[in-house]
Amino acid sequence: MNNLQKVGGFAALAQAIIYVMAFVYFGAFFDFPRAGNIAQKLSFLADNQLMLSVVNLVMYVAFGVMLAVLVLALHHRFKKRAMVLSQLAVVFGVIWVGLVIASGMIANIGLAAVIKLSVNEPDQAMTLWLTVNIIVEGLGGGNEVVGGLWLLLLSCAALKSNQFSKTLSYLGLFIGLAGIMTIYPADVLTEIFGIGQIVWFIWLGTNMLVKPLMHESA
Question: Is residue 199 part of a domain?
Fold first, then answer.
């Protein structure tokens, strides 16, 4: 249990780092020519395929693996004093893991297919690229309902079992609600969820590392 909590803490910190890296990359380095023509857009994708593939691998697949570890660690932390809430959280946590990893694999396979198709059928390639983006966004890139439910249930379990500080738990409730509200397509809600999770992951991970046996001593 002790080791699992520490590993979960490191996983939470790793997820925060991945979030920051994604924000930095897409905010400062990813200069997709949205106003350009089809040829310019496809050329940009081809020129940046390796970097985009690596980013997708880290942002989705690696994040999903770290999330799986954290889901398990938190379930073991909460299950004795908030069994039902913890079990419900695990359900949505596992679903979120699957959606996140699937998003990354679809993004990379789709990107490769787009670039291959662009050689002879640029119009169809761009249509495919738009379709891939919609699928990835729908699974988890722009829709955080499942992640929001997981975080909301976890925070309720933390409050019921008197885990962590109430401030951290209430922050989780707020971020979870923001994630659920992303069912309405508004960028500000997705940004609140993303930025809020950076803070939450860092705070949570630090607590899990500093007090790995909190459950038993509570």
Answer: yes
